[in-house]
Here is the input.
Amino acid sequence: MTRTCTGITRSGQKCPNTAIRGDFCFAHAPDLAAARKQGNRAGGHGKRTERRMLKRMPQDLQDTLSTLYRVLAAVECGEMEPARASAIAAVSRAIVGVYDAGLVESKLTELEAKIRERAA
Here is the structure.
């Protein structure tokens, strides 16, 4: 038989969660406070990282990512055939590949210029 947490929620109600440590759930167990704090910190970090990534991502790739999310949703609800989604995903991979090649070429050109500067 599962036990219910004896903690009290912020709204003053009895916590409905299953007790995992003695009489408390993860959210109310006093000995898990450090783990909760670390998890909250990590969760917030992930959101900030995602926002930073999107800011740095070229608009073309942001558009490609948005398209892929729309395609996924359309396939999931049956509005698009999986074969069409696969074709869109293949084109998306090609777009990202061209972008990556351009990025590598740009970095290589930059490094070559720095080597020439040091040699001079």
